[in-house]
Inverse folding.
């Protein structure tokens, strides 16, 4: 059983604060939580909403309809009321008729707490009553949350929540809600997961230019910079950011930059530089719809082929695309490890949906556990940076040691000095290219959810993991033979491993229908798959309206 | 496969102004007592940007126009390293002009030696950001229209720590300026080095510069910003050379609390168990 609460209003009205309050409290109560936000590219006004879905089983997707709408403005009410589920309820910040419950949230907050700011506590109190939840966990949470601000603030917030609860008393228990376990769960967003993983892996330098939806990770790193010892620098542009990161990794410091598609476009020459210099840079590319400025605060998976092919010349790279905060945490570290092991750039692909979503996730380890940089402890006196080896990986020393470390964006000889010797050119290009073989052999295998012998196989990558997984559950419950395969690493692709995972060589037990589910126009991952495993027939369920998939939408489109 | 000959000898024209700059750079490194193992020479692209390959040091020869952000990353990751950018006017004042301005603002401990010959060499003779108005090239066929970049003035406006100019034709002066730059500990240094291009600049020749450069006298107070700006904008019959401006603003890296615990690379190694 699950239920969705949607809080909607103008930017600056406390939509996010109310949502955060519900998420934090309901996690404390031991409910499974899946929260997403929909916001516009502005500071004030417009229509933003925050969805909190709660359940008594793990949740992996949002839903288009809400069971409870808390509308803070007439516009929110008019726009979102049609998306209230049958049997649902509506709370409006003012007077309203019929089944709608009118509570002047801001008026009550002013009356009881002395400030409209506490409207979020009033709203949360009302929500708790409608769901027949005891208000105690809510008031307990408010006491902890505002403790630092003093007893008066605490008591005002508590009073607001209690008054909100009273005002909804006539409709107490109007909605059937999942039963809390009473055992608190922790929650995480994709953004926090990436930021914490980077800090604990030993990233010591981050340079970025702010760009939605990537700014959150940059902000997170700044917030923990003193604790973990990180220099966080706001660069003058994305070109500077990626070149700063190249400079820092050359010296031996794990370093990263965060950006979205437009900024990544500016970084592309720097990416190629990292390929040539064999620097283990990490770029977090958090996608939003393009082309150009596109829809800054919406979600998309339109930059996959761009990331795979970005950069002039040919050089290996690794690209990871986590599906949940938990995966984002694991793969941020994996991306840094891969980059350092293979002295090649790594790209971590997120999107607005994953960056902003909050779900219950087992607590992350906050201890600093530096990755292995694969540095030569004692370089010989005759050290050269680009010694030709079988794996393509050359022993790496750092400047400041006994060895001179010479790197050049021109083609170079083994000693790093620029050359126009064409034999050296071929030798060094071959050396760099050979690293791709090792990287391919280590590529993460896709994860299957659902039966091995399913007739319909959904293929997805990145943030589509959760909605696809729920679609499998919905379809399976209706009797369909369906499974999904999620790719958390999208480059390089190991054709043999994919054929095995897809059961393409197994004869009768293989899938009859393959459907790629992607947030883009034509199925970019499907294109890579066709190329990698010569897939003859692959349908696409694609979406590019800027909103994330829901499990229901995918299931619906597969039935059609 | 036909393989053209290749070695690591300077790829400059005989008589190029880069030769004396390289020679003096080598002397200045020794004079200033710089440990070459702790020295990183950073450059972008162009004939001047090849300089780091012809001496003994750590080298980061990156992208066109991007020497400064790379140097910034290097200095922040290990502020014990001496980071010197040696590159040309096209690289530093053209393609990389945006970074130039923000590096001055940051005042990070990176020393820039800009080989300024007022023309593009490697791409064969187009105007550079410092070409004088009216300078005719195969592209600017009716002469340069744009106002020239005045790098020293830009640096002074942004309160860059040390701003100086020298001339490749006066090796003694150049050496003194390079040593002063290398010994400077207060932040960013801009040393603009006037240099003839014997292949593509027939106007601003060795003689042209020699007739114009005038060392600033002892009477110049380099902490006087207005006077310094005046000198920085003086260009024509007379071109002042020497230390034009200095500021006592602390360096960027000295203001980062995180670096009080040692270099970032050192902090990482310590956390990783000394590897």
């Amino acid at each position: 059983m699950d239920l969705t609460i949607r809080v909607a209003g103008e930017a600056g009205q406390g939509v996010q604060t109310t949502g955060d309050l519900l998420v934090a409290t309901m996690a404390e109560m031991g409910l499974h939580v899946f929260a997403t936000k929909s916001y516009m590219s502005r500071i004030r006004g417009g229509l933003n909403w925050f969805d909190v879905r709660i359940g008594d089983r793990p949740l992996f997707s949002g839903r288009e309809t809400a069971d409870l709408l808390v509308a803070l403005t007439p516009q929110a009410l008019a726009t979102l009321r049609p998306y209230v589920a049958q049997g649902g309820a509506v709370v409006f910040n003012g007077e309203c008729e019929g089944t709608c419950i009118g509570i002047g949230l801001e008026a009550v907050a002013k009356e009881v707490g002395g400030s409209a700011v506490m409207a979020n506590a009033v709203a949360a109190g009302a929500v708790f009553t409608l769901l027949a939840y005891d208000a105690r966990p809510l008031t307990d949470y408010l006491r902890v949350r505002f403790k630092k601000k003093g007893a008066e603030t605490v008591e005002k917030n508590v009073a607001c929540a209690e008054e909100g609860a009273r005002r909804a008393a006539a409709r107490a228990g109007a909605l059937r809600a999942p039963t809390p376990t009473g055992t608190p769960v922790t929650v995480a967003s994709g953004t926090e997961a990436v930021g914490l993983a980077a800090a604990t892996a030993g990233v010591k330098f981050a340079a970025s230019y702010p760009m939605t939806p990537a700014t959150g990770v940059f902000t997170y790193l700044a917030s923990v910079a003193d604790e973990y010892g990180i220099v966080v620098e706001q660069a003058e542009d994305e070109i500077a950011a990626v070149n700063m990161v190249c400079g820092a990794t050359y010296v031996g410091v794990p370093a990263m930059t965060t950006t979205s598609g437009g900024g990544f476009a500016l970084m592309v020459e720097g990416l190629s530089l990292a390929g040539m210099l064999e620097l283990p840079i990490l770029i977090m590319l958090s996608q939003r719809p393009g082309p150009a400025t596109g829809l800054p605060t919406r979600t998309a998976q339109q930059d996959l082929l761009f990331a795979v092919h970005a950069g002039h010349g040919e050089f290996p790279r690794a690209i990871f695309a986590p599906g949940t905060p938990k995966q984002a945490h694991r793969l941020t570290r994996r991306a840094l490890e891969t980059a350092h092991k293979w002295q090649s750039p790594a790209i971590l692909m997120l999107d607005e949906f994953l960056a902003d979503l909050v779900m219950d996730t087992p607590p992350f380890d906050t201890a600093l556990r530096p990755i292995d940089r694969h540095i030569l402890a004692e370089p010989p006196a005759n050290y050269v940076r680009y010694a030709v080896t079988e794996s393509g990986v050359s022993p790496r020393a750092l400047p400041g040691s006994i060895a001179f470390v010479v790197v050049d964006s021109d083609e170079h000889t083994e000693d790093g000095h620029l050359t126009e010797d064409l034999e050296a050119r071929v030798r060094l290009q071959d050396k760099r290219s050979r690293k791709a073989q090792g990287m391919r052999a280590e590529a993460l295998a896709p994860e299957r959810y659902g039966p091995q012998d399913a007739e319909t196989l959904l293929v997805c990558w990145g943030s589509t993991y959760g909605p696809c997984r729920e679609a499998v559950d919905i379809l399976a419950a209706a009797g369909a033979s369906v499974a999904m395969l999620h790719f958390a690493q999208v480059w390089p692709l190991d054709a043999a491993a994919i054929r095995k995972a897809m059961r393409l060589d197994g004869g009768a037990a293989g899938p009859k229908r393959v459907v790629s589910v992607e947030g883009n126009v034509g199925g970019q991952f499907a294109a890579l798959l066709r190329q990698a495993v010569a897939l003859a027939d692959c349908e696409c369920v694609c979406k590019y309206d800027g909103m994330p998939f829901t499990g229901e939408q995918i299931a619906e489109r597969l039935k059609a | 496969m036909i393989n053209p000959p290749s070695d690591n000898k300077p790829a400059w024209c005989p008589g190029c102004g880069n030769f004396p700059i390289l020679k003096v750079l080598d002397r200045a490194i020794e004079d200033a007592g710089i440990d070459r193992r702790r020295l990183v020479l950073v450059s972008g692209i162009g004939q001047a940007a090849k300089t780091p390959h012809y001496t003994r040091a750590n080298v980061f020869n990156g992208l066109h126009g991007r020497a400064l952000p790379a140097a910034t990353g290097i200095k922040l990751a290990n502020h014990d390293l001496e980071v010197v950018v040696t590159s040309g006017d096209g690289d530093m004042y053209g393609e990389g002009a945006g970074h130039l301005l923000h590096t001055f603002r940051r005042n990070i401990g990176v020393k820039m030696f800009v080989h300024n010959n007022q023309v593009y060499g490697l791409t064969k003779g187009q105007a550079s950001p410092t070409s004088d108005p009216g300078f005719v090239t195969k592209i600017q066929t009716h002469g340069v229209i744009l106002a020239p970049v005045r790098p020293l003035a830009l640096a002074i406006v942004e309160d860059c720590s040390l701003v100086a100019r020298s001339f490749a034709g006066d090796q003694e002066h150049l050496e003194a300026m390079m040593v002063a730059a290398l010994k400077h500990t207060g932040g960013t240094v801009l040393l603009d080095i006037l240099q003839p291009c014997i292949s593509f600049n027939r106007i601003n020749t060795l003689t042209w510069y020699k007739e114009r450069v005038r060392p600033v006298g002892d009477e110049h107070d380099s902490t006087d910003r207005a006077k310094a700006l005046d000198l920085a904008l003086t260009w024509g019959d007379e071109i002042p050379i020497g230390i034009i401006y200095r500021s006592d603003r602390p360096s960027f890296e000295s203001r980062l609390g995180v670096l009080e615990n040692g270099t970032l690379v050192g902090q990482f190694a310590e956390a990783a168990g000394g590897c």
In short: Chain A has four domains: 2-171, 188-360, 375-442, 447-559. Chain A has a mean pLDDT of 96. The CA atoms of residues 272 and 312 of chain A lie 6 Å apart. Chain A touches chain B through 60 residues (CB under 8 Å).
